[in-house]
Design a protein that fits this description.
Number of helices: 7
Distance between the termini: 28 Å
Helix content: 40-55%
Largest sheet: 2 strands, antiparallel
Strand order of the largest sheet: 1-6
Shape: elongated
Oligomer: single chain
Number of strands: 6
Structural class: mainly alpha
């Protein structure tokens, strides 16, 4: 199976509706990058998945999306602050390491209007911006590791489901 980046597609008929498989909302923020998953595993038993995801989404929005405002849950127990700091430092490190494809994908340099272009166009854009010359296979693997890709079969099944439900 050859993973393809998630992207919206225009479909003929049906009002040219955009069709895209649903993805985990944490994936575009880098939640599934290996360094972040190490931090999640480290703190899971102490804090729990729900709170870790809340902290991660708040911190990652500030780091990945370059949002100036950090909005944490109303009360953060003092025992959780070390985890919050580690999450922030880790996602910042992932986004800053431009020698890896994940940094280019998460940094938004590859996304256009919330969707991703073809792997060849992403590769060309990275090279044009002075980045490493990643192979298309390396980019596909990075999308897959970040859980931002689906196989062609999954995308086809999704489109088939949407067309039968809406058509």
């Amino acid at each position: 199976m050859n993973p393809q980046p998630l992207q919206t597609e225009r479909r003929k008929g049906n009002g040219n509706a955009r069709v895209a498989p649903t993805i985990d909302p944490f994936a575009p923020l880098g939640y599934y990058s290996a360094p972040v998953q190490k931090i999640v595993a480290k703190w899971r038993d102490t804090i729990g998945d729900e709170m870790l995801q809340r902290y991660f989404s708040a911190v990652a929005m500030a780091v990945v999306l370059k949002n100036c405002k950090l909005e944490l849950p109303t009360f953060v127990p003092w025992q959780h602050w070390q985890a919050v700091f580690e999450i922030g430092a880790t996602i910042a490190k992932v986004c800053a390491d431009k020698s890896k494809a994940e940094a280019w994908i998460l940094g938004g340099e590859c996304a256009k209007d919330g969707s991703y272009e073809s792997l060849q166009e992403i590769r060309a854009k990275i090279i044009k911006q002075g980045g490493k010359s990643f192979s298309v296979g390396a980019l596909a693997a990075a999308f897959h590791r970040l859980k931002l890709s689906v196989s062609k079969e999954t995308a086809k099944d999704f489109r088939r489901f949407v067309i039968t439900k809406t058509g």
